[in-house]
Amino acid sequence: MTSPAKLSIAVVGPGAIGGTVAAWLSHSPSVASVTLCARTSLDRLVVETPDGSTIEASPRVVTDPSEITAPVDWVLVATKAYDVAAASAWLAPLVGPGAHVAILQNGVEHIERFAPFVAADRIVPVIVDIPAERDAPGRIRHRRNGTLTVPAGPAGEAFCALFETQALVASTTDDFTTVAWTKLSLNCVGAVNALTRRPAGVVAEGSVEDLMRAMVRECVLVGRAVGARLGDETPDWVIERTRASAPDSVNSLLGDRLANRPMEWDARNGVIARLAHQHGIAAPLNAMAATLLSVLE
């Protein structure tokens, strides 16, 4: 029996998520090569894994789309949600016939962001739950095993087949809208961390828990309006998840503010406020969070 052909992968964006995924894919038996598309060159990827060990990878690193000499089978975009224009510059040389583009970004507008640059039927939106932090370029702490969830179908199944490690489990879902809005419910409260400049442990102080719960309630109402099946228990689930995080863990929104980088306030809170307005729903807390973070940025 002929073995399946190994696949070529390009990962656009070597941050905490992109770097973690690229490192694990470099060790996947189904992957022939990994190309890392970055603004600046890296010598290698070093990831501290959830079990305390370390994996290293030395993928080919390119810093300009003109360096791409051939298309790949899969392009994984792991840039920030606001960085679509820069990420899209890599697509023309990388996306060949039959290739798919997986969007590993926050928010609920994966396809809308990239439809101007690649055919919508080539796009695979991915909901990522990988607690990872970048300590330095190419150096990442992967705190616990992660998941990647994609819509059911042949493209989604092909994406899942890339991952053959318990550290990153990929799966499909028949209700991607609900999965996406569940993740947004969790992400929207990260604005509190960014505004206070405090890590996850701030949830235990004062009335922060009540504020976060109210922000999630707004997200739930808007999510329901666009077809997500979110239960009344969602705010309590978010608080439980937040309290279960390491008190010193830093979400990406806070990490970006501390590093004076642009922040994903629109993908996390702005989208809730925008869609709330469209559907006649009040979402003042998320609107305020988006406004204040935009001013701070």
Give a short summary of the structure.
This protein has 297 residues and is an alpha/beta fold.
Figure out the total of helices.
Answer: 12
CATH superfamily placement of the largest domain: NAD(P)-binding Rossmann-like Domain
CATH fold assignment of the largest domain:
Rossmann fold
Cα radius of gyration in angstroms: 19 Å
Number of strands: 12
CATH class of the largest domain: Alpha Beta
For the record, the count of structural domains works out to 2
Reading side by side through the largest sheet, how are the strands ordered?
Answer: 5-2-1-6-7-8-11-12
How would you describe the shape?
Answer: globular
Main sheet: strands, sense, barrel: 8 strands, mixed
Ordered list of secondary-structure elements with their pairings:
Elements: E1 7-12, H1 16-26, E2 31-37, E3 45-48, E4 54-57, E5 60-62, E6 72-77, H2 84-88, H3 91-94, E7 95-104, H4 110-114, E8 123-129, E9 132-136, E10 139-142, E11 146-151, H5 154-160, E12 168-173, H6 176-188, H7 190-196, H8 208-225, H9 234-244, H10 252-258, H11 265-278, H12 284-296
Parallel strand pairs: 1-2, 1-6, 2-5, 3-10, 6-7, 7-8, 11-12
Antiparallel strand pairs: 3-4, 8-11, 9-10
Helix pairs in contact: 6-8, 7-10, 7-12, 8-9, 11-12
